[in-house]
Design a protein that fits this description.
Length: about 130
């Protein structure tokens, strides 16, 4: 008999996805409504558990479902934040395009000036 709170050995942690994977996936899917995102949450969660297991868990199924739900909510928040920031980010983008066009115009002017100076004597080129 094992105590109610324990850290499972690494071999047991590696088997968790088989035993609890579906419950974790469903918990994430209920929040996200997207199969791909739910799979990502599931994989991230089990990877975190393998890398750094919690020290005292009374009920693994409840812990895993709660953890999946919280990670899914974090993804939703991140997605909503991105939706709010994306229009601001895109508003800045044309300025970058304008800078590239300005650099291209300046390069063309420099090329034209260099070709005009080719016909002049060296002292005149240095003055200009």
């Amino acid at each position: 008999m094992r105590p109610s709170s324990f850290v499972a050995p690494a071999a047991a942690r590696i088997g968790w996805p088989r035993g609890h994977g579906r419950a974790v996936y469903l918990a994430a899917y209920r929040v996200l409504g997207d199969a791909g995102q739910a799979e990502d949450v599931q994989q991230d969660m089990f990877l975190r558990l393998i890398e750094k297991p919690p020290t005292d868990v009374a009920s693994w199924p409840a812990y895993l479902a709660t953890m999946a739900t919280r990670q899914a909510i974090d993804r939703l928040r991140s997605r909503q934040r991105w939706r709010r920031l994306r229009p601001l980010w895109k508003a800045v983008e044309p300025e970058a395009a304008d800078a590239v066009e300005a650099d291209a115009e300046q390069a063309e002017r420099a090329q034209a000036l260099a070709s005009m100076l080719d016909g002049h004597a060296r002292p005149a080129q240095e003055v200009l």
